[in-house]
Amino acid sequence: MRSVELFAGGGGLALGTHLAGFTTEVVAEWNHWCCDTLRENQASGHPLVQSADIREGDVRDIDWPAYEGQIDLVSGGPPCQPFSGGGKGLAAGDPRDMFPAIAEVIRQVRPKAFIVENVRGLTRPKFADYFSYIQLRLAHPELAPLTGESWAEHFSRLQAEHTSVRRDLAYKVVATVVNAADYGVPQQRWRVFLVGFRSDVDAEWSFPEATHSAQMLAYSKDVTGEYWERHRVAKKDRIKPVTTPGLFDLPAASRPWRTVRDAISDLPEPTARSSKGILNHVLQEGARPYPGHTGSDVDEPAKALKAGVHGVPGGENMLRRPDGTVRYFTVREAARLQTFPDRYSLHGPWSEAMRQLGNAVPVMLAQMVASSVHEHLALADLRARSAVATATAEKLRAWA
User: Fold this and answer.
1) Domains of the chain: which residue ranges?
2) Over the stretch 343-378, which tens digit does the pLDDT of each residue have?
3) Which one, of 205, 391, 186, 396, lies nearest residue 302 by Cα?
4) Residue 35 annotated as catalytic
5) pLDDT, tens digit, 9 for 90 and up, residues 206-227
6) Which of 34, 38, 80, 178 is catalytic?
7) Whole-structure pTM value
8) Rounded-to-integer distance, Cα 75 and Cα 223, Å
9) Mind listing the pLDDT tens digit for each residue in 158-216?
10) C-alpha torsion angle, residues 98, 102, 108, 109 (rounded to 10)
11) In whole angstroms, what is the distance from residue 327 CA to residue 361 CA?
């Protein structure tokens, strides 16, 4: 199955969709550092980006109609700044709002499905109407805004026509807010996913169920001690047990949240002078905690990596040891927290590489979502072929 990636950044969502079985035809991104990351990995022979046509520039300038009917999946994470809690929250009033651009690409390409990711802030009450508008806009991409029509006016028209208009191109859209830690990512990263299937695709899709839990992590620490024993943590460095509601009422298939220690314990302690033969593993000095930004406890999932906001490059992207001391994560450690492959290089200085990672979709989460979409598309294709074969057989019997 073929896909295109919009607002690719450093490549997290694109890597995940490729791992899920999609062949990425086009990767579109305007940021030069991000494109250099993609090109550098392509030049080094990284298998996940070999087939991609990397387009540096505005996604609105690409000849998307040339791909009509050829693409199974459109995926992308439009800029989050219009909706982020750390920004001004201008939504449609922010020129970086690219949701209309995604809807327009979907209209032109007509994929069987799409995956769109953004920050949880998009679901805040102040954005309630705009979030509803986005969902309707994606559900009916052919009902584009008229010249001079505001998004609010367009929203009213979409609402009025939603239940009555029958267009050739429409999508069934599912919106879900998830915590990446619940899916095996060693980071508490809340995100909203908008997943749509074209109305003619026979797919009864729902978001994949969580595979990991905070309760199981607490159980492995406070009850069995397995977590501490596995990492050979001295008793003096262990977090004191806490009472966890429902601790013993645990789902059998659930696994423990993964922690910072789980993700990076096999990496050597970094230095500022040498990467010790490990890609992007050099210490950035000067880390210090400040109010609201105290780093990530080594024995918990990391806090959400930041993209260089809150006054300090890299935000609070620091590791906090059991004794309370902190240091910055190396780029490789941060890549581990975002579940990027170890062979995947992040181009640019520390601040630029961390910005790419802070904006990225965790590869493991992207893969899980895209794998589910891929599976449902494959089943829908199988059902469609079976229906055609059955109809053909009935015609042959009738002629006989």
Assistant:
1) 2-207+365-374, 212-253, 264-361
2) 999 999 998 999 999 999 999 999 999 999 999 999
3) 186
4) no
5) 999 999 999 999 999 998 999 9
6) 80
7) 0.90
8) 42
9) 998 887 766 678 999 999 999 999 999 999 999 999 999 999 999 999 999 999 999 99
10) 140
11) 24
Class of domain 2-207+365-374 as given by CATH: alpha beta
Instruction: Give tens-digit pLDDT for 246-297.
Output: 555 666 558 999 999 999 999 999 999 878 889 999 999 989 888 878 899 9
Residue type at 119 in one-letter notation: V
**What value does the mean pLDDT of the chain take?**
88
Q: CATH number of 264-361: 3.20.20.140, 3.90.120.10, 3.40.1410.10, 3.40.630.30? A: 3.90.120.10
Whether the per-residue pLDDT at 120 is higher than 80: the answer is yes
d(CA 134, CA 110) in angstroms, rounded, equals 17
Cα–Cα dist 136/172, whole Å: 10
- Both tokens of 324, joined, read 């309370």
103: Cα within 13 Å, side-chain hemisphere: 20
Long-range contacts made by residues 240-248, C-beta under 8 angstroms, separation at least 24? 242/218, 244/214, 244/215, 244/218, 244/219, 246/215, 247/215, 247/218, 247/219, 247/222, 247/223, 248/219
> In the predicted model, is pLDDT for residue 50 greater than 50?
yes
The C-alpha angle 307, 320, 77, rounded to 5 degrees, equals 20
